[in-house]
Amino acid sequence: GDSVTQMEGPVTLSEEAFLTINCTYTATGYPSLFWYVQYPGEGLQLLLKATKADDKGSNKGFEATYRKETTSFHLEKGSVQVSDSAVYFCALSDRGSGGSNYKLTFGKGTLLTVNP
Amino acid sequence: ETGVTQSPTHLIKTRGQQVTLRCSSQSGHNTVSWYQQALGQGPQFIFQYYREEENGRGNFPPRFSGLQFPNYSSELNVNALELDDSALYLCASSLEAGGGTYEQYFGPGTRLTVT
To answer: Are B42 and B106 in contact (CB under 8 A)?
Structure first.
């Protein structure tokens, strides 16, 4: 079945540092890939997405490129801020077994803490 | 545009009891998915409803059931609660689009504690 593996956290950085959170996936079909962010006490917010190979998703300075050859979708940001402190989830969406059910399969999440 | 809302925010139940969680989808969205997020874990797919019918189910027992109403709001029901059911329950709504790569928009969740 589908699965997503993220680098384990927690990740602690100083403000303005470079961020990379690794994500690899296994899927039987041609999934879409997502990064979601969860701030303390809140639900999930979509950060960025990519729907096909070599697509780059970007938002709020974050970027991730859909690499089919390495089945990866690593999240990067050139200069993190304290306000970026949150849990980041990599996820894929794929058609369920023969149906139209596009469920999301999530990684376990990576806690990012950015210190001033 | 109204986002996804869930009620209640927090809930405490006793083992063996039953619980109903509610979700109002984002305006115009016809698909609702439910996820269970245990502490420190990623969300796990429970099931999805599309136009009032179940449209896929994850690896959850039958005591997890749901409904979707004509206005596309939804309920998640859990019978015979167990301690391991303690989690954040997330509802997500979406509009199924051609190609199927639609986005899911999440509500704030209901925190269920089973004692």
So the answer is: no
Beta bridge partners of B5: B24
Nearest CA to CA, how far is B106 from chain A (Å)?
A: 6
Q: Reading across the β-sheet that carries B5-7, which strands appear in turn?
A: B5-7, B19-24, B74-78, B64-68
- Are β-strands A110-115 and A11-14 bridged in parallel, bridged antiparallel, or unpaired? parallel
Of B56, B103, B108, Cβ closest to residue A43: B108
Predicted confidence (pLDDT) per residue in B52-66, tens digit: 888 889 999 999 999
What letter does residue B85 receive in the DSSP assignment? G
Q: Select the residue of A44, A96, A108 nearest B106 (Cβ to Cβ).
A: A44
pLDDT tens-digit series, residues A2-17 = 899 998 889 999 999 9
Of B40, B100, B109, the CB nearest to A100: B100
Residue A98 region, left (φ>0) first, then alpha (ψ -120 to 50), else beta?
left
Q: Does A70 touch chain B (CB under 8 A)?
A: no
* Residue with the larger pLDDT of the pair B105 and B115: B115
Tell me which chain A residue has its CA closest to the CA of residue B102: A102
Put simply, whether B24 touches A (Cβ < 8 Å) is no
CB contact under 8 A, B96 and A36: no
Burial of B16 (0-12, 13-18, 19+ CB in 10 A): exposed
Residue A38 pLDDT > 80, yes or no?
yes
